[in-house]
Automatic annotation (TrEMBL):
InterPro entries referenced in this protein's UniProt entry, alphabetically: DinB/YfiT-like
Name of the protein this chain belongs to: DUF1569 domain-containing protein
Lineage: superkingdom: Bacteria
């Protein structure tokens, strides 16, 4: 199952890459942030979450029930404008194409590294709780799709 999720994430990373040249496009009716912000934020989340998962101790994983996760994960949906991104994944005021490209390469490597992780590798999300490797990869998929949908709407 993780291989499928990793393949999906790799396809989403390729979509991010295809939008880098459009980084400065903005549509205030859709979002206060431009496309570059959406891409930078998505890459920061992928890299940050993967790095956390790479450092976790699988024996410390505990399965838990989370109502929000139970509802939103099957729907592959995150509502817009509800959550505030943690400071660590907020993009800078000026987003450089070189920085996006650098983060993109790092994301490709980090996603690849998750293949060899035990299934009890994990990430604790502030809304969705303790996520196993499989759930973490699903979160990254949902989160990235959410921001790519915003990008698509900005481009319409």
């Amino acid at each position: 199952m993780s291989k499928r999720r990793i393949d999906i994430l790799n396809r989403l990373i390729s979509k991010i890459e295809s939008h880098i040249p459009k980084k400065d496009i903005k549509n205030n009716a859709i979002s206060k942030a431009d496309i570059g912000w959406q891409l930078d934020h998505s890459l920061k989340v992928i890299n940050g979450v993967c790095n956390i998962m790479l450092k976790t101790k699988p024996e410390k994983y505990t399965r838990d029930f989370n109502m929000m996760r139970s509802i939103l994960f099957p729907l592959c949906y995150i509502p817009r404008g509800r959550a505030k991104a943690p400071k660590i994944v907020i993009p800078p005021d000026v987003i450089l194409e070189e920085e996006l490209t650098s983060q993109l390469q790092e994301a490709k490597i980090n996603v690849e590294k998750t293949k060899s992780l035990p299934e009890k590798s994990h990430f604790r999300h502030h809304v969705f709780g303790m996520l196993s490797k499989k759930q973490t990869l699903r979160f990254l998929e949902i989160h990235t799709k959410h921001h790519l949908k915003i990008v698509d709407d900005i481009l319409k």
